[in-house]
Amino acid sequence: MYTAINAWKEEQNECTRYYDISNYNGCIPKPITKGEKAATHRQALSQTTWENFTTSSTKELLGSLLDTYSLYQIPRNGSDPLLVTITVSVSNVLNVSWYNKQLAWDETDFPFSSITVPWDSVWTPSHSVREAFEVEWTTASPDVVLHSDGKVEFQLSLRIDSNCNFDLFYFPRDKAHCTLSFFFMDNTVNELEFKVSTKNEILNVKREYLVTGVNATSQWDTLQVQPLFVVMIDLENTGIRTILSLIVPSIALMIADLCGFLLPLKDRPSYMVTLLLAYLVFHASLVGSLPGASSCNPLLSYYYIGLLVLLFLSTIETILVTKLVADNHDRQLKHIFRGATATTTSAKNESDRPEDKNSRMNDYGTEKEESNLNQVPATLDRLSFFIFLGLVVIFHLLFAGLWLLWKCESEKPPGEGHLDGIKNRQGW
Q1: What's this model's pTM, rounded to 2 decimal places?
Q2: Cα dist from 410 to 288, 405, 407, whole Å
């Protein structure tokens, strides 16, 4: 029994020493050869040595770099201001880089071309966005990359909710010019300057607004000593959804109203009233779908009101013509009744030939008068159709002229120049 137990212990020791225990399954070890065992031992030894060397070298490098380094002091570049290069990606990413000679090292002493440190361990420019309501960091603690030549760079991912002035007068083909002003309160223009570039990384696919241009400038004036740079983004509304869902149905409804004049007059009033009621319901949704504006309402809202007035006029015209035809029909019935009475009277006096001749002449005059009465409603109906068609054409030509020529300026506070709702300083 003792011999069996000792043999089992020796087997477990051999399993631990000469077997791949990472693949251990129950009490059945996976054997490896002596050559594989030696290679595994050499690899583990080399990895351990490199990791120890890397850890110690990194600590030594960071210790030498940050020994006399001040986190709260801007890196000095002699008498010249520190040049910070910023690439603004319209995917809400700021690629920021600058050179700090205090954080440079010799690669012969420390075999690293770059290392990564937490952003709060070195100085980084702190900025604010003037037009922003809220700025949210997508990454709470971004890493900073230090290069051996002293270059410091990091990517700052932001989500910015800002104030932007949209010119909705030409909705749904409106354009917007949004401005983001990044300024730095901790430093002056003598200490810090920017070299700003932009890059549009937003794919204009399945978006209501397209980014048509991105520009950035570094600017300041004599009244503002803090450095800043301004990013200007140009947006353009595609308008496809609005055109297909709102404008096309309105034009189709107007064409249907014009085609209603081809119907018989007795069926036309119900048709016109149905179109008018349908457009009243549709108009409520149209007005609700349009964006609101304080001083420059969308020109499209006036177009919808004009269509409503035209439909109302066509309905009123149809009702008036129908009333005239009904009155004319009553007059015809009276003339027919009078003709029948005259015929009965002449039959009783057959012996009087001259009166019979006068009776036939009266009947001929009555038929001619009835024909004239029948032509009056038809002539008036055709005349009203051409008048209505002319009004439709004039209205659309007038609307096209207003769209091309009329410029609406948003109201601004008196005595002040403003940009996107923010006071515009001199020199911007």
Answers
A1: 0.56
A2: 22, 16, 10
